[in-house]
Amino acid sequence: MVSLLEVDDVTVVFGGNKALDSAGLRAERGQVTGLIGPNGAGKSTLFDVIGGLRKPTTGRVSIGGVDVTKHGPAKRAKHGLARTFQRLELFGRLSVRDNLLVAAELGPERRRASRVVDEIIERLDLHHIADSSADELPTGTGRLVEVGRAIAARPSLILLDEPAAGQDHTETERFGELLRSLADDGAAVLLVEHDMGLVMNVCDQLFVLDLGKMIASGPPEVIRADETVLAAYLGDV
Ligand code: ADP
Ligand code: MG
Fold it and tell me: How high is the mean pLDDT of the chain?
């Protein structure tokens, strides 16, 4: 079976060091897939490779069975990819509504962009801050708006880099439900996250990176008991 996202044998070298060393992963529609590992393991670099911001030294990325390795970010977006960044990338002076509108106007439903925005405001419960400017928001809320921008493009593949950082317990719990519902609607959700409660609750499959290598993959209950993963990462969490 062809997975929605297939990443194989990706190597990225920075100044002689391998940030990624022949790493691969899969993400399926209808599932939340987690990518975990210690700081510096290469998670954000892998997202840059999948998103088309960084060309790998070796390796392939395919989305929906199409090899997109040579495509830039805009072309990958046409194949259904959307992402958020570890660093917030909102337009600070624009309102939350306008941040969402800019994204919706770039998406496939641009003719009904303001309706798409209304739906997202409803779905993410952003009514109370819709007219606030983005740079007034607490970080956790800003991340939620970034997810809103990603889903405004109606993606089939959503990459989320530490979206729950800065959220409190209740926000994180609701966020987990949101991720679940995006997958239930048919998207493939790929999540980088350090909050192990969220990861273990919401993910169907996990991939574990350490020093640029994929050291384990499987369902959360298997990963949680994996000796190599415990030694490299979970033992410290
Ligand atoms: P993670 O997201 O898992 O914390 P990163 O992908 O950010 O890890 O980083 C992986 C490794 O690559 C780290 O050793 C980091 O210092 C290095 N690295 C990341 N980006 C760059 C860059 N632009 N130039 C040089 N080294 C980088
Ligand atoms: Mg990172």
Answer: 92
More confident residue, 196 or 86: 196
pTM: 0.92
202: nearest Cα among 181, 178, 176: 176
CA nearest ligand 1 atom 25, residue = 14
Domains along the chain with CATH numbers? 5-87+155-234 (3.40.50.300)
Percent helix / strand / coil, the chain, rounded to 5: 40, 25, 35
Tens-place pLDDT, residues 57-76: 999 999 999 999 999 998 99
Angle of CA points 128, 133, 135, to nearest 5° = 115
Question: How confident is the model at residue 237, as a pLDDT?
Answer: 57
Each residue's pLDDT tens digit, 189-232: 999 999 999 999 999 999 999 999 999 999 999 999 999 999 88
Q: Is 12 in the pocket of ligand 1 (CB under 6 A)?
A: no
Q: Which ligand is nearest to the CA of 85?
A: 2
**126 Cα: distance to centroid of ligand 2 (angstroms):** 27
User: What is the residue type of 57?
Assistant: T
d(CA 132, CA 80): 29
Q: Could you identify the atom of ligand 1 that is nearest to the CA of residue 15?
A: 25
Specify whether the CB–CB gap between 211 and 39 falls below 8 A: no
Residue nearest (by alpha carbon) to ligand 1 atom 24? 14
